[in-house]
Write a sequence for this structure.
């Protein structure tokens, strides 16, 4: 299975969501996208986007240096 | 883009009062006058006369600027020609939830009161006349929301009214040291409530469902025997959802707590009655209800003990010090009374405009409409456009003469996403709030639906390119996009 890491640190919304959407579309079903983001909007919007798009948010962890790591599996 | 040259005031006014033709788009007007004053006068006359035309007078410039063709008239012989450029755009103002223009009746009341100076606290004739006007205004405000005149505290606006409700009740508190607030309250409620935690108060925030509505059972469960105040807005300012205020009142009163209702969005739009809502305190804003800015009021019912926040005299029954804004109050009272009388007849029409807009939004890909399907303000439609920055969309619409509000402000003064949308579990980027004025038309909905799809498409294309460029730029530096096989 593929894992793609997308680094959106320092980028404000909606770019993290745009890039997540593109990255998820680029992996096969079951593939995982790891998104790094530190925009406060991403903390809210990434989980909501996963819910709206029926994609699986595997984890959302704080990064030691600030921001979060979201792990999203393409579910469909 | 079209430009015209006219001479003097009359030519300018004639041109600008012509009906707007959409095919012309932005119009630029050059007014020629023989002397500076004439041109200034033209600018001012047009700016005042052209209500809702979005006139933006540019700085006075000498001579007719390049490109000004058409009905060019020569300047007055021997005089210096000054040209003033103005952009004439058909303004589509769709941000009534932020602020509203003066109601014509309120304007009359404001102008009538503006020369009637006098301190209502003084006993001589001028003071008594001022007192009379103040009392009459207070009675109208009280009648509009089903309150007693002596319960009305005049303030500088809804924000001060909400601050006074929360902080004033807390200052008068005895052993009760707990507040319950909805997570989607306006910051004018949330901020003073949170500030109380530094003074030994405890604050419980009650969440909302996806539609932005508080669950009455959850709110009731949060109310305790030591709860002093429950704060629940009548209608939400960002998504228009109407809250179960009556149930909240019962929950508060069962435990001996007070209910404060922020009604800034609903007065003059929905029926607002202290008894029907079960409110002990209620805040309203003048400028959101076709009154002047700098006016508002708090109703503090019989059960509500309140200590003032502004100190210095004994006005407003010792609940708010400071000279009353008499012209503003007279205008606000007139506006509120007029709106309360007019609103029921407009409800259906505005709701239908909202429905049309919602239906039209359905044709734009990836647009999510927020709020409650039925329990909501009639004139407000909130939505998020996925993958688009709200403020960028706002600016593109502004360039087309359409004024809407964006709740998400990633680039502006606040970095935090909208706390209302976050509490709802809604997408916070690309958020747009459309709210109609009382006289909104189908043409305004048409105009928005004509412009919006292209603006959205343009921004999505830019976001796509932007995103690719960032990836390209980041790649040589290291493993920004890092594929690994497992």
């Amino acid at each position: 299975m593929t894992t793609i890491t997308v680094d959106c640190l320092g980028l404000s919304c909606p770019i993290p969501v745009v890039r997540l959407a593109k990255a998820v579309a680029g992996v096969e079903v079951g593939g995982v996208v790891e998104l790094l983001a530190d925009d406060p909007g991403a903390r809210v919007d990434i989980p909501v986007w996963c819910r709206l798009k029926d994609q699986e948010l595997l984890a959302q962890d704080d990064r030691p240096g600030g921001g979060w790591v979201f792990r999203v599996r393409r579910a469909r | 883009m079209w430009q015209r040259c006219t001479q003097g005031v009359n030519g300018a006014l004639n041109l600008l009062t012509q009906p707007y033709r959409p095919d012309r788009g932005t119009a630029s007007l050059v007014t020629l006058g023989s002397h500076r004053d004439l041109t200034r006068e033209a600018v001012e006359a047009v700016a005042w006369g052209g209500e809702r035309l979005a006139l933006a007078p540019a700085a006075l410039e000498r001579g007719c600027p390049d490109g000004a063709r058409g009905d060019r008239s020569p300047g007055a012989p021997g005089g210096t020609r000054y040209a003033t450029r103005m952009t004439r755009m058909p303004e589509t103002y769709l941000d009534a939830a932020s602020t509203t223009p003066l109601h014509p009746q309120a304007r009359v009341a404001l102008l009538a009161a503006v020369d009637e100076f006098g301190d209502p606290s003084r006993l001589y004739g001028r003071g008594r006349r001022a007192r009379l006007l103040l009392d009459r205004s207070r009675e109208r405000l009280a009648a509009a929301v089903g309150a007693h005149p002596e319960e009305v505290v005049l303030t500088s606006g809804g924000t001060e009214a909400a601050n006074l409700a929360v902080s004033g009740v807390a200052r008068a508190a005895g052993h009760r040291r707990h507040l319950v607030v909805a997570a989607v309250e306006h910051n004018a409620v949330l901020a003073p409530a949170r500030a109380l935690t530094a003074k030994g108060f405890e604050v419980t925030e009650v969440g909302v469902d996806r539609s932005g509505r508080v669950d009455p059972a959850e709110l009731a469960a949060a109310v305790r025997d030591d709860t002093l105040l429950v704060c629940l807005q009548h209608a939400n300012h960002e998504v228009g959802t109407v809250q179960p205020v009556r149930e909240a009142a019962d929950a508060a009163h069962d435990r001996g707590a007070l209910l404060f209702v922020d009604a800034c969005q609903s007065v003059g739009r929905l029926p607002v009655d202290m008894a029907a809502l079960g409110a002990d305190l209620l805040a309203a804003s003048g400028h959101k209800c076709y009154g002047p800015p700098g006016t508002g009021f708090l109703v503090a019912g019989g059960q509500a003990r309140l200590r003032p926040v502004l100190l210095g005299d004994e006005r407003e029954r010792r609940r708010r010090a400071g000279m009353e804004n008499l012209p503003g109050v007279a205008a606000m009272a007139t506006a509120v009374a007029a709106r309360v009388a007019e609103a029921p007849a407009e409800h259906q029409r505005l709701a239908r405009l909202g429905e049309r807009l919602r239906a039209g939004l359905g044709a734009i890909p990836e647009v999510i409409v927020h709020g409650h399907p039925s329990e909501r303000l009639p004139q407000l439609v909130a939505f998020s456009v996925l993958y688009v920055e709200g403020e960028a969309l706002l600016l593109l619409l502004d360039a087309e003469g359409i004024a809407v509000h964006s709740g998400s402000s990633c680039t502006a003064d606040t970095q935090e996403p909208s706390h209302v949308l976050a509490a709802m579990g809604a997408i916070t980027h690309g958020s747009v709030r459309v709210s109609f004025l009382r006289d909104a038309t189908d043409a305004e909905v048409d105009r928005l639906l004509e412009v919006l799809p292209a603006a959205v498409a343009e921004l999505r294309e830019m976001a796509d390119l932007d995103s690719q460029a960032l990836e390209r730029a980041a790649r040589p530096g290291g493993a920004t996009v890092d594929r690994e096989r497992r």
Q: What stands out?
A: The longest strand of chain A covers residues 2-8. Chain A is about 35% helix and 35% strand. Chain A has a mean pLDDT of 95. The radius of gyration of chain A is 11 Å.
